[in-house]
Amino acid sequence: MGIRLLGIAMLVACSAIAQSPATGTSGGQTPALQTELKKLAADAELLHSDLPGFACTETGVSEAIKEDERNPNKNKVKAQVQFVASVRAERAQDGRLHESLTLSEVNGKPYNGRKFNPPMMVEGGFDQLLDIFLPERQTCFNFTLSNGRIDFVSLPGTFDRKQCGELGAPQGYVLFDKAGNVSHMERQVTPELARQVHIVDFASADIVPTELAGKTYPLPAKVVAEVPKDGQVLHFEATYTACHLFKATSTILPGVAPVPESTPSPSHP
To answer: What residues contact residue 169 under an 8 Å CB cut-off, 6+ apart?
Structure first.
């Protein structure tokens, strides 16, 4: 089952966040909040237009969990698939970043090319990380800036606007470290709206600044996503390591001089 992970909203390095509350929609924001949102918008546009092809090692687990409402300690895992894979993101002719997965290990054993049927898989968590902060979408939200954190909530009546409705009217927050770099993000969408726009209900992410081709991009170090379905909760959790520029292989024909390879970019932590 493929369920898109969309708009989990992260950013790269920012200046230190103001410590006093600053709130508002696009028409009533404080200067401090406007400054931070402009930086986020620039980062969002960079991811959409400039993020190069790259690959990471993805180590994940996908589960179907039967929850005990009275005692969470009695939750039962009904299905579980653990996997290790290389996830590759390449920008296609349509300008979008397309992801592909090459499995190397399933449930602790080398993948044999046969059945792989996890309860849930997600995608879209690379170039879409900052979707909430794109300039045309910031008008969909009310933002609050305070104590190293930005909270966001969808404005009433905006779901019917295309640029807003695609996000599913989420609410959530981002946290920043002492240097002003975003370190964590969470967002929640109601099940009804999540089904309409084909996104997960809950998503959280930890991110790290990652250098690719001489530029720094915010890539996920860990992603968690959940979707309620048929009396169960589908749970997906993955970490991403060793991210690096993707280099296609080619065969040099006789009599053709090879093109010198460029220096690889530093690896993702």
So the answer is: 154, 158, 159, 189, 190, 193
- The DSSP 8-state label assigned to residue 132 in this structure reads G
User: What is the phi-psi region of residue 247: left when phi exceeds 0, alpha when psi lies from -120 to 50, beta otherwise?
Assistant: beta
Task: Let me know if 117 is exposed, middle or buried by CB neighbors in 10 A (0-12, 13-18, 19+).
Answer: exposed
- Among 4, 10, 1, which residue's Cα sits nearest to residue 204? 10
182-188/171-176 β-pairing: antiparallel
In the chain, where the domains are located: 2-245
More confident residue, 181 or 26: 181
Q: Do residues 200 and 226 touch, judged by C-beta distance below 8 A?
A: yes
Q: Kindly report, residue by residue over 55-71, the tens digit of the pLDDT.
A: 999 999 999 999 777 77
**70 or 226, which is more confident:** 226
